[in-house]
Amino acid sequence: MSSRDLILSRIRAAVAGAPEVVIPRAYRPAGPEEGRVELFAERVADYRAIVRLVPVEEVATAVAAALAARGARRVVVPAGLPEEWLGSVPGLERLGDDPPLGVTGLDAADGVVTGCAAGVAETGTIVLDAGPGQGRRALTLLPDYHLCVVLADQIVATVPEALARLDPVRPLTWISGPSATSDIELNRVEGVHGPRTLEVIIGA
């Protein structure tokens, strides 16, 4: 018997004969549609992320402006990112991930541009699932700058709504603002577990 089987058998023995517990499921599964985009923008900004809310037809212009303001010339571009989002950026060196970029290559890049799988208005959270335009998890953890495009129809009001849209077998990354920790004496340190700068363009 493995250690895992031994532990599970002890748990089963301990709870044998215990009454069945009814778990309440009365939480609010959905929120209002109205104002979700504006609330998402507000909550993302609360996390000290840079937020640009633009008409969807101006996403490419906003991406170009964001990269220019950052001085980003070499950026990681995951497979499947809409070509039109980067089409108006002159002189941009696009770093593909096929073959996969190593740690040194990702660290040397000026940033990464991605889309997302969903956005949650109540929590200001962006969800990536390694789908088209998002790439593997390392692409958004190692570069110091992450520029993420979120479209209005990807934004839902609540976490349960986001979960209903997502595939649980995919590698999900939930992002709430730039990487930061206050573990040591409550001093905020950014860039510990991911990019220090998160910029979000919301195409509405």
TrEMBL record:
Residues 108-202 form the LUD domain. This is Lactate utilization protein C. Coiled coil: none annotated. Gene3D superfamilies: NagB/RpiA/CoA transferase-like. It holds the Pfam family LUD_dom. InterPro entries: FTHF_cligase-like_sf (IPR024185), LUD_dom (IPR003741), NagB/RpiA_transferase-like (IPR037171). It comes from Sphaerisporangium corydalis. SUPFAM superfamilies: NagB/RpiA/CoA transferase-like.
